[in-house]
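Quick start: read one record
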Amino acid sequence: MAITVTDLFIYPVKSLRGLRLERASLDIRGLADDRRWMIIDQHQRFVTQRTLPALVTIHTHLTDDGLWLQSPDSECRVSKIFSGDPTPITAHIWSDEVQVLDEGPAVGQWLTEVLKHTSPLRLVRLSDQPRPRAKPEYLGPAHTVFADMAPLLIANQASLDALNHALVDGTEAPVPMDRFRPNIVLTGLNAFSEHRIARLRHSDFSLALAYPCERCVVTTVDQTTGQRHPQGEPFPTLTRLNPMPAYGSGAHAKPANLKAPAFAENAYLTGAERGLLMVGDRLWVDELRTLESPPNALG
């Protein structure tokens, strides 16, 4: 079955507004420039839309030499070449401790003021010490910078179409793909059949689909306004339509979670050290996954 890449996205700063691309290079850490910075609080813990949905109101823009952060009223620039204090600090992202470099007080103050945060925020980048690998039993040699778990998130347009059909049937408004903040969007698959695929083949490399992405409250945040849906949609509708399936096997088997939805697949590059992916590229199913306990939506 031929599958087409219809969209590519990166999010230079974790939880801020993303960028749509026509092409992107990728390696074992994901798409180039994706989630290379993140914001931390006074406890040096990562900050996301889960607790601060207004983050999405800050736009990001990349140039050859810098990152621009833009609010409706002001902007702030960060150099791609780090020139601040080279002493790493420890930051926390989920259960990981990561060594990061602080981009300095000016951008930290700008973020704190723009977001009207009651305590100081800081922008950081990864130091020379790599982040510990997350879930090596599923993600193999892959590691990431500041993405939650996997280097890549691959979404299926047909799955979004099925969700929106269910939302409209329930008198709710449809949602755009940006609610799920994917890196790669595909067409040519049946709805939710991405959960049955273990590997997609490109002419120059492969993409390993490691396990379904269990979704959280970020799906309820309008990625333009930063406002949450008052009834928490599309979370409950998607949970009924496509609950989180079981995945893994043996000692690493994970049971299904019928109280949370799945949407898209956590994935990583394999078969090459790096690659180039373009909108319009064709992919083929190279390997199917055996599901011990398939989700209801897959029968």
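Helices lie at 105-114, 136-139, 157-169, 235-241.
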